[in-house]
Amino acid sequence: MPEYKCYWRVVNPETKVSVVFGSLAARRYGTDLTLWGALQGRGDPYRTLLREGVTSYLNSYNSLQFSYNTIGVILHMNWALMGSPRSVLLTALRFRRANSGHGVVSCKFTPCK
Q: What's the whole-model pTM score?
């Protein structure tokens, strides 16, 4: 959402998914998909994984207390991409729970000034 734009610190919405998540993501999603485009993903388990993974990636940079650190998000994404469709869904669900505030810390984002 535009009012949370200030939280894009290390990457920007036009950063490519393949740059952040590497060659496995590039094979699955292509090399042109941006992080912003990834956040629009719905309807397919792999798109859901990517949407929740990108959200977790952003959260990991903005809170040291987030359930996953940045490297952990990348590792879990790649493990899921190497696994079964079930592992894709489970990882997406775990990311979604963390993004929703379950676990160590809840979301503390407030609209940017």
A: 0.89
What is the number of other CB atoms lying within 10 angstroms of the CB of residue 9? 9
pLDDT confidence band for 101 (50 / 70 / 90):
confident
Domain ranges of the chain: 5-100
**How far is the CA of 90 from the CAs of 30, 47, 96, in angstroms?**
22, 13, 10
Q: What is the dihedral of CA 71, 76, 79, 83, to 10 degrees?
A: -170
DSSP 5-53: GGG--SS-TTSBHHHHH-HHHHHHH-SS-BHHHHTT--SSHHHHHHHHH
pLDDT tens for each residue of 4-25: 777 777 899 999 999 999 999 9
Where does residue 96 rank: exposed (0-12), middle (13-18), buried (19+ CB within 10 A)? middle
Q: What is the mean pLDDT of residues 80-106?
A: 89
